[in-house]
Amino acid sequence: MRDSEFFGHVTAVAPGKVNLSLRVGPLRADGYHSVASLYYAVSLFEEVTAAPRQDSAITVSVSERSSFTGTTHTDPESGEIITSQIPVDEHNLAYRAAALLRDALRERDAAVLTFPGTESPSYGVDLTITKNVPVAGGMGGGSADAAAALMACSALWEAGLTKEQLAELGAKLGADVPFAILGGAAVGQGAGETLSPLLTRGELHLVIVPASTGLSTPAVYQKLDQMRAEAGLQEENPDLDNDLVRAACTGDAELVATLMANDLQAPAVSMLPDLDDMMDAGMAEGAMQGMVSGSGPTVMFLARDAAAAAQLATGLQERLDVWAIPLHGPAPGARLR
Fold first, then answer.
1. 197 Cβ partners below 8 Å, 6+ apart?
2. 295, 262 Cβ separation under 8 angstroms
3. N or C: fewer beta carbons within 10 Å in the chain?
4. Is residue 42 within 8 Å of 328, Cβ to Cβ?
């Protein structure tokens, strides 16, 4: 008997991430920017439960246990505050991941099922997402949902696919999905989807402060292009600092603090000036370094060790009445629970 038949469902988790460095190059012909990124998986996990269906439908729901269920953002044209909930249709990355895997398995079945009357399984699934990574916060929460959905559905449907095969499939959904499947630390190049996993032997301790307001990743990239054009700057092919990569692998927090960089920080701060005040507050509370995570608006701080991270989180909560979450990494990639 399959586990899915015994328990009636399969649950997988996948980590959120931060970019210890994010260098952005020129806009490519395919509409993406060339990047060089140091991905770092952290101990904040999305959870996706896949339950079988008798038909071929895919449904998505968000668990009441979720820490995050939506976000707000300001419309750039009208200035109006818009509240956005997590989509539960084909616009959800977990839905798209399940549909992508379903189509791939149907194609595989069509090539091997040659006996008359033999039918391919329906590959229907009910997905329930428990969100623990900030929504639209620059930490790859949606990509982690997709990674966990691929892992859970692969097990539910007994696809027999390896992590590497799931990562290759997940790359069709976005640059962050393969990393959420593999976890750990990696250098990302191209549009971020070309991953070079790193061997790590040390930990880093961080504190993140989620924002109540979200930022659109495409809008932040567009703002970066605008700021560079106005300044007359010529984009160069991006590259990572090799010393930073080595420091991240060994858990050398002091060196990481001096070399962290994010080309998207300036446009994110220009769109949400309060981020600057948040980073100043974190440094005043003893952070070794503060930076916008990815395209923001989540802010992350580097701490010397676990005790310092806990103290920093408490200090930020008391000073600013915000939710500050201590984390560590590198965290493992998507896995069954």
1. 182, 184, 185, 186
2. no
3. N
4. yes
Among 17, 131, 163, 223, which one carries the catalytic annotation?
17
pLDDT value of residue 5: 47
Say how far apart CA 162 and CA 49 lie, in whole Å: 19
What spatial distance separates the first Cα and last Cα of the chain, rounded to whole Å?
18
Of 145, 176, 223, 263, catalytic: 176
Domain boundaries, the chain: 3-199, 204-329
User: Mind giving me the DSSP string for 245-274?
Assistant: HHHHHHT-HHHHHHH-EETTHHHHHHH-TH
Report angle CA 180, 182, 183 to the nearest 5 degrees.
Answer: 65
Q: Is 223 a catalytic residue?
A: no
pLDDT tens-digit map of 260-312: 999 999 999 999 999 999 999 999 999 999 999 999 899 999 999 999 999 99
CATH class of 3-199: alpha beta
Report residue 252 as tokens: 């050398």
Tokens of 282: 């974190």
**Mean pLDDT of the region 146-151:** 98
> 204-329 sits in which CATH class?
alpha beta
Q: Catalytic annotation on 17? A: yes
C-alpha–C-alpha distance, residues 133 and 18, integer Å: 11
